[in-house]
Amino acid sequence: MGVISTVLGFSGFGFGFSAGIVIGYFLFIYVQPTDVKDVKVRPLVEYDSKSLEGILPEIPLWVKNPDYDRIDWLNRFLELMWPYLNKAICRTAQDIAKPIIAENTAKYKIDSVEFESLTLGSLPPTFQGMKVYVTEEQELIMEPSLKWAANPNITVAVKAYGLKATIQIVDLQVFASPRITLKPLVPTFPCFAKILVSLMEKPHVDFGLKLLGADVMAIPGLYRFVQETIKKQVASMYLWPKTLEVPIMDPSKASKRPVGILLVKVVRAQNLRKKDLLGKSDPYVKLKMSDDKLPSKKTTVKRSNLNPEWGEDFKFVVTDPENQALEVNVFDWEQVGKHEKMGMNMIPLRELLPEGTKVTTLNLLKTMDPNDVQNEKSRGELTLELTYKPFKEEDIEKEDTQGADVIEKAPDGTPAGGGLLYVVVHEAQDLEGKHHTNPYAKIIFKGEEKKTKVIKKNRDPRWEDEFEFVCEEPPVNDKLHVEVISKAPKAGLIHGKETLGYIDISLADVISNKRINEKYHLIDSKNGQIQIELQWRTS
């Protein structure tokens, strides 16, 4: 009987289980619910502000304001680098705090102040977006929106009068909108000389402060007092237009800006060696500044003369008086073939006193190698008269602040002496050639002509080429002629070079203001513009 009941039990379970699966399958397939509605997909622009706040509790700034760019890549970078940045920032903060603590402990009769723990937590700052400004100056302006809800563990132990108090900072929140300016931009890594930081509005700083384990910020009135005090202190130091300046490098050395003029008079040469088989040598002198890409300057050729007298004057622009040198080479002119070098030497500029005149006689050498035995042989002497005239300090400081929104005025009165006209051809826009557009700019000043590099097939070329013109007197009544030309392609046998436009710039404003940086509409061009920076430096 027991066996029969067991068999029937298993049979009933198997039948019921199979029947349940079959019935459930048909109900799932063929029975449709009546209370399910299709989802309506609507674009965000159709929602009102309240509905958007319900869908997105915190709308990113780059969504609300089209001027801000999305920078998720930077947030991802911070997320990956934060464990290392956290340690580096805390170590730097401790190094900065040590001398400050040491100075104030004795002042307030405190035994010691030590960090028991210092970490910024595991949550990195988040950038909600970044606004980038485009200016005509050599600078980069960024305005990120920073939000940081941190979980730091900062514990400071203070010992005084035999007692110990422990202060802990927890639950830090910082909301700020800083303006970060990198300027001036220079062609030396990291490509900017200074970092200027300022706050565009008062920051929001919230944190918990525990003293001996108790929450001090819970004291009535203290929270608001601390908040207002922090905002006032930070605003008084860094609220725009006040800035925090972080120097990176010397701008004048980084960009190789002119700092003075070297006046050279080639007086005479004596006892030069004869190079020609028949007759005497025909000497001339070539002069060049080291690290200068400009071609060498030459004296006239003195025919059949081993003791020539020149008395010729030359001017050179100095960019680094500590490391530059004047290179001097004497050659024998040949009507046919290569001119033969008669001797050479150089004068380091650091040996010259500012505003002082030095007359020196150089022994001509075979090479500049001090161990070369060939230099022991006499090759003659060359006498030079040198005067180094550095630019005025206010002019150098003014150029170092290039990129400022306001152009500073020059000292009262027009410079009485000579100076240097410094020209930077930045870029051009909307150029249009009739048959080709391979633009370069040609600058003409008092008959002296200089050219930028050629940029092929570009209507918006960016040259950033710099030129210098040494002037005997301020060019108050002169004009600078700038012409943009399209160079014909190599295969351009039919169509030659084309003029894309020109501009004549009066230099009176440059002399009075020391510096201008403007965009000019090109004459004989439909929409073409060119940006040129002009500087005047007195000697």
TrEMBL record:
Residues 67-249 form the SMP-LTD domain. Residues 240-362, 401-520 form the C2 domain. GO terms for cellular component: endoplasmic reticulum; membrane. It is a single-pass membrane protein. The keyword ATP-binding does not apply. The chain crosses the membrane at residues 7-31. Pfam families: C2, SMP_LBD. Gene3D superfamilies: C2 domain (2.60.40.150). Coiled coil: none annotated. It is found in: Membrane. The keyword Transport applies. PANTHER family: EXTENDED SYNAPTOTAGMIN-RELATED (PTHR10774), OS09G0538800 PROTEIN (PTHR10774:SF216). This is Calcium lipid binding protein-like. It comes from Zea mays (Maize).
